[in-house]
UniProtKB/TrEMBL annotation:
This is Uncharacterized protein.
Length: 161
């Protein structure tokens, strides 16, 4: 791994800019996975004092405009760190098709979702994060990290069809 360079190996795309957790809803960017072997979605949830759980679900879409969408029911691997100030370890959660960031303890958290594009339904190749809940005092930023099917000097765009 001596020659590994994150931006040269992965397609890095902002899913949603840092925003109050209650305002994200369905406004995250939709990403095309047709040229990806694997996709990771990284959530940084910053606690500002509000206790209202942040529920995350994911959808498949036929295009990046979100023309036709369907909730994904296939389970995915999930990891989490519910107190980033105390530890830097990620714990594996039970695979699921949704997860909830519990804000009771008021700690900054990192959650990682792994998606395998081979699990899309026929005719779907785009991925979309949708959230509910969240508190206006808390903030969340979301990033996509896609592993391209084929390595090249220029990684193909994931925000166009």
């Amino acid at each position: 791994m001596g020659n590994f360079s994150l931006p040269e190996v992965f397609k890095i795309v902002q899913c949603h800019e840092p925003e109050t957790a209650d305002a994200i809803d369905s406004t995250s960017d939709i990403i095309s996975c047709k040229n990806l072997k694997k996709l990771w979605v990284v959530f940084h949830h910053y606690s500002g004092g509000g206790d209202l759980d942040f529920v995350v679900t994911w959808y498949e879409c036929t295009d990046v405009a979100g023309g036709t969408t369907a909730i994904i029911t296939a389970t995915s691997p999930i990891w989490y760190n519910t107190d980033t100030s105390a530890a830097d370890l990620l714990t594996r959660a039970t695979d699921a098709a949704t997860f909830t960031i519990d804000t009771t303890l008021q700690k900054d958290q990192i959650w990682v979702l792994e998606w395998d594009p081979a699990l899309f339904s026929a005719g779907y190749d785009c991925f979309h994060i949708v959230t509910t809940g969240g508190h206006a005092s808390n903030h969340c930023s979301i990033m996509y990290f896609g592993l391209p099917r084929y390595q090249s000097d220029v990684v193909v765009s994931a925000i166009t069809d």
